[in-house]
Design brief:
With 368 residues, the protein is an all-alpha fold. It has 13 helices and no strands. The termini are far apart.
Amino acid sequence: MNKINWVLNSPTITSWMATVVNLGSSFVVLPLMMVKYNENQISFWFLINTLLGFAALSDSGFGSTVTRAVTYFLSGASDIPKDINEYNKGFEVSDKPNIEKVVVLYGTTKIIYGYLSLLSFILLSTFGTLLVWNILSLSNHSIQMWFSFLMVIVYSVISIQTTRLSSILIGLGFVAKLNRLNILGGLLKMLLFVGFLLNSYPIVYLTGTILNVGILVYFINKYFINKWINENNVTILPDIFDKLIFKSLWPSTWKMGLILWGGFFVNNGTSIVISQIKDVKIMASFLFTQRVFNIIRGISQAPYYSHLPEIINVVARKDFNEVKRIFSAYVFLSICLFVLASLFVVFFGNYIIEILGIKTEFLPVHLI
């Protein structure tokens, strides 16, 4: 029993378990989808996943910054250093967690993420519509596809709000619980996806599953927050926008936001262009290849993100030797995982999907 509890409460092990579930889901669901759906539907599905990634960008880097801020305050800090100069000068750190500042941060982020949710809605309603218009036209503007797209817009708003809660929870040390939630959510989606696909249900059922599971995850995150509030006898103040906290968050947020937006367009810019061509076969092949490599990238990043609170905590203590040791070890492991998995797909990918009877192939090696 003690070993089971240790496994379930280990951020690293639960992160890997969540990764395995997502990987297993991809390996189970993706082949079924490639067999059951035509190339138009496959292209639309992968494009929908690109839009979900685009919607997540509306967070614009606030998520990781909020996690860092919560960790600083729990470490006893009275303020968040705005830049490297303030960090080097030092800042006041108490022996006790600064719960009051966490509460103020909680109220400030509620207002921030309200605007971010609005931004996400506007982006998907405008840019997103332009992006999917071509594939919808090739599908004769299928009503079910339109409903799927509308559900993605609603999900994006829910997802932004969930990101706010999960960012705070990660800083509060709920990494293992969130990973367990992701595992259960991933298993639920996988089971429902498989059931729908085996019975040849249209894509609208899959997007409906994503939306409903997303709503469920939001309310469970909300429950975790309320539980922490009650256990710590915290009084939540009326929504207050603390300008000083925002000014402390913004310098690193906008830089992270630029990195995220730039990374998204570097990784997905080509797929946005490809989604506008009329050759559905090439479109499906490209988006399928990109989807697989995105899965590989997510798997390779698991070691780093599972230890993010630990790294931030060490940074707050200015133990740079320990930061270097931890950071370099996890980055090296992530790179090795990505390279090995990518080479496997490049050299054996098409052989595997041929055995599975999937018509859509990976792009040729020289194009990858």
